[in-house]
Amino acid sequence: MVAEKQERQTTHKIKKWGRNRVTYNKELESPKFGKPIELTASGYILDVNEKDGKVDIQTYEPVSGATILEGLSLSKKIKLNGLEKGVICEFKLDELKAPLSKKTIEYLKEQGIMMDAIIQFELKEVKIIDEKPETA
Description:
By secondary structure, the protein is an alpha+beta fold. Helices cover 27% and strands 43% of the residues. A 5-stranded mixed beta barrel has the order 1-2-3-5-4. A hairpin with a 4-residue loop joins strand 1 and strand 2. The N and C termini lie far apart (85 Å).
């Protein structure tokens, strides 16, 4: 009788955890971003992914705690073929932030992940500051 009750409790906990996990996944996969914040940073392009239409950049100053930003979406006015790696540029970025619920934050902590928001960047404008240095 006791073993049967414990099994029912365990089954209930597993079902509840499974339902919560679906909720967490929905929140993580479809974040609700607030209004964009425009940021300006200088740095250079690390990589251009023409297939996905995304770029990776490195900034000289940290942006939201990081200097390497990967998989940035591009605004429609930026042409991929006009971007060159290693050239010093000034970037205008839109930072979109989606805060996570307390339950999702706790769930992620249990998984060993410290995160309280999802941050996404879009590259709005690129202005070349300095061409590649001449080689002697």
